[in-house]
Known about the structure:
Elements: H1 13-25, H2 32-39, H3 43-55, E1 59-61, E2 67-69, H4 71-80, H5 84-100, E3 103-110, E4 113-120, E5 136-138, H6 143-149, H7 154-160, H8 168-177, E6 180-183, E7 190-198, E8 204-213, H9 214-217, H10 221-234
Antiparallel strand pairs: 1-2, 3-4, 3-8, 4-5, 6-7, 7-8
Amino acid sequence: xxxxxxxxxxxxGVLDKTSLLLGVLADGPASLRTLSEVTGLSRATVHRxxxxxxxxxxxTRDAQGRFLIGPRIGExxxxxxxxxxxxxxxxxxxxxxxxxxxSARLYRRHGGLRVCVAAAExxxxxxxxRSAEGVALPxxxxxxxxxxxxxxxxxxxxxSIRGAAFGMVTLAKVRRQGWAQSLGTGELGFGAAAxxxxxxxxxxxxALVLDGPVTLMSRAPGRQYGGLLIDAAAGLDTGPA
Length: 241
């Protein structure tokens, strides 16, 4: 397996090694062995750094004991993203929840992660920690990731879809339709629809997502809710903070 190298190091060894670890984990959970193999760092070094990062909540672990991006990174990104768009999203998300009974969320992209910066949980969906405000998820699956990536330049798309659950064909379809959808990606029995949120210059700055049980969302959530989401996204304030 090829190892990663830091192209523009900080000059501070521990920071560069930490950056390598976070770069691997941006693609999803990884074991100690995988982290060592991909970064080229010794297992002892990876273990020492990972435990230290876990102590300050920059890393956490899943049920299999693999390391993954911790909640603190999402919280920091959320604070950085508290602009006019995030502040204006509350009433739009609440209206979507009221009209559909599903959960409505706003995601921003931060490199290889998408961070939930605002959410309105549907009354019938329960509190889903995996998608709560501040949580950072890899850009490798889900309707929200598709909506955030579909309008990127071709080189960025090609780089970002490596190892993803969707490919070029799916993203081309998203661009034609104006909406994305997924079934059972984040959680079995759940479906999601998503649309891009565009800034003043037309660039994609966020993704507006509606998700809930398939019994509520149907097996074609994008077809059912895409138009509603497009209208809602147009009502968001994307002007400068």
